[in-house]
């Protein structure tokens, strides 16, 4: 049975609960939509009401919850006195919250997640260095891509909009396996791609699924097409261009939707993009190769300039 999730304006179902070995489960995460100024009291009241309904649901279906396992994360630029009660216990707000391996902080900077990711990768690279003498260059490269780089790219579209100073930590980590793989030998060009390059390819591929393939679970990522009343050369060069969401902060401009929308419009305006991106003409792997070549050519031209 789906568990309720609280929103200031409406209630909508959340994912089903899963039992733990201790026969007690933490309460499901409660997400609150953006509230209007002065609406804090009513939002807290609605959340407490939902928690109370959840207690009643648990007693009815003989489900035991563990309040001490329930975490509360308040994402805000200002401090608020959020008092939520669940099963007779007061939920203390925490500074960080880990969901499916991604650490969210109360400022959404993703600095704790990136630092933890860098520490974990450092240990994996140390293990790779200890066994590097058993493998040739190709073997070390394959092991790095399969076991280490995959963890660096886990859920990258969620935290990819972090500050450049935080992302630079992962770029520094990327340079360590290059020394381990080639071990003083001449590096093969293009063997290890830039992490930001791979994040951009993943973002545009996700945009293709949302905009062209109409994947149902990505409907919320779908953007409206740009509306223009005056036909210009720029508009004519970008048929089907998307409306860029307005951003009033650099933090918002670095997020997935804004970055991918800009790249998508530039891709449509380039000569590398085919006129039809449907599944019958361009497969998913073909699109990834197309985006990879286009991004590489753009970055090469920027480097030459």
Automatic annotation (TrEMBL):
It comes from the Eukaryota. This is Reverse transcriptase. It comes from Petrolisthes cinctipes.
């Amino acid at each position: 049975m789906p568990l309720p999730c609280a929103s200031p304006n409406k209630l909508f179902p959340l994912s089903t609960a899963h039992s733990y070995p201790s026969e007690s489960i933490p309460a499901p995460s409660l997400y609150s939509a953006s509230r209007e100024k002065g609406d804090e009291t009513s939002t807290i009241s609605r959340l407490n009401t939902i928690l109370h309904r959840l207690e009643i649901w648990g007693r009815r279906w003989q489900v035991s919850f563990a309040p001490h396992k329930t975490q509360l994360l308040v994402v805000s630029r200002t401090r608020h006195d959020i008092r939520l009660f669940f099963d007779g216990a007061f939920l203390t707000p925490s500074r960080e919250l880990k969901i499916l391996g991604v650490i969210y902080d109360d400022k959404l900077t993703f600095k704790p997640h990136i630092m933890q990711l860098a520490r974990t990768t450092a240990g994996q690279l140390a293990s790779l260095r200890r066994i590097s003498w058993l493998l040739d260059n190709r073997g070390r490269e394959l092991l790095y891509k399969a076991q280490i780089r995959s963890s660096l790219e886990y859920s990258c579209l969620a935290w990819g909009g972090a500050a450049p100073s935080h992302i630079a930590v992962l770029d520094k980590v990327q340079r360590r396996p290059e020394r381990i793989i080639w071990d003083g030998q001449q590096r093969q060009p293009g063997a290890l791609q830039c992490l930001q390059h791979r994040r951009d390819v993943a973002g545009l591929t996700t945009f293709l699924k949302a905009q062209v393939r109409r994947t149902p679970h990505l409907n919320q990522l779908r953007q409206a097409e740009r509306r223009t009343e005056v036909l210009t050369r720029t508009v004519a060069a970008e048929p089907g261009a998307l409306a860029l969401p307005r951003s009033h902060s650099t933090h918002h401009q670095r997020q997935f939707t804004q970055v991918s929308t800009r790249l998508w419009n530039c891709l449509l305006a380039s000569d590398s993009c085919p006129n039809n991106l449907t599944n019958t003409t361009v497969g998913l792997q073909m699109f990834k190769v197309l985006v990879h070549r286009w991004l590489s050519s753009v970055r090469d031209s920027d480097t030459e300039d």
